[in-house]
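Issue 218. Parser rejects a valid record. Input:
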Amino acid sequence: MVSESNDPVQEYIDNPDKQKQLYKRTLIIVVISQMFGGAGLAAGITVGALLAEQMLGTDAFAGLPAALFTLGSAGAALTVGRLSNRYGRRMGLAAGFITGGLGAIGVVIAAIVNSIILLFISLLVYGAGTATNLQARYAGTDLATNKQRGTAVSIAMVSTTFGAVAGPNLVDVMGDFALSIGVPELAGPFILSAAAFILAGLVLFAFLRPDPFIVALKINANKQITESDANQGKNQINKKAITVSAIIMVLTQIVMLAIMTMTPVHMGDHGHSLRAIGLVIGFHIGAMYLPSLFTGILVDKIGRPAMAIASGVTLLTSGVIAAIAPGDSLFLMVVALSLLGIGWNFGLISGTALIVDSTEPSIRAKTQGTVDVFIALGGASGGALSGMVVAGSSFEMLSLAGGILSLILIPVVIWSIGNKNKEMEES
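Output the parser choked on:
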């Protein structure tokens, strides 16, 4: 369990106004860190596949970088979740971001010495930054009410947009900078990643005090003491809802990462420039995060299930457009990848809000970390298989298959609603 001096924390526990102030202050700190974190994750998304293709000499394994840093993020998600549960969000998130920054430095070194083994190891470590960037969304929900949770997640995510959109559009600039200092061009964006992830970690370590997770734990402990024995432990964890939230987020991650991973390679094969690829990925990442404020409000207003269904429909539309778009059409690739980002956004925010609803503070961070492991493993599978699917068939087939796979969300959500109604009738 988490332990921290009672003096700085107790005043927040006893004072609801102070809790509201800390909630708002936490969101500000998370917003600042996510701006840096967004810039850090953009490099791997934009040029990771291209760097691997260049170093390996084939595009059959171009999906490996996304698979590796997503696989690395799986282990990091579990570690960050457990660190957060034991020591608070500040320590867990700061450690994750700084580790990701060290991984990005390793990628740069691997490109300089042309070492495939070092590249793969470094990409695994770099995954800690991507995992932490996702886990940071939970920090804003620790002191949020049930009606604020979707909005709290969305505020954390929308702030990622500023760095995440800037990152791909700085590909040319960072490539030129890398060449000027004797580093391979495609390693340039990872220099930006290293600085961004480390800065994000330092911001959280320095300013996320008192820790919102620790305060939420103590508030919950006080409530349990004052509740009657009959109510203790009631509604603390809903395993069915956790399973549904995990399925929602894992499926959206698989579909999004599989199509996104091979888009730069597909565009490169059709003669698009690095600038054009950066533009498309920039739109995609913007669509992943920028709609968050509206998504959060919708998740809180019309419900988690409705937005999860909207995610499946949006991802299907994206896959169909990507499949039928001519390879030289920049506009249609922008549309398809933007819809891909929006569909992912709907699924992640609705799933995140649902998992927070279904847990209580003492196990929340650990449960969130465990679910994020499955999200990362799903993404790793999608990234790894995407290159093989394209090599064996085509990008169009990959996109169409991803869109169809996303439709599984609809029966899953309908099943969960049916189960919930049955439980209400029985009670």
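Fixed in the parser; the record now loads. The two ends are 33 Å apart (CA to CA).
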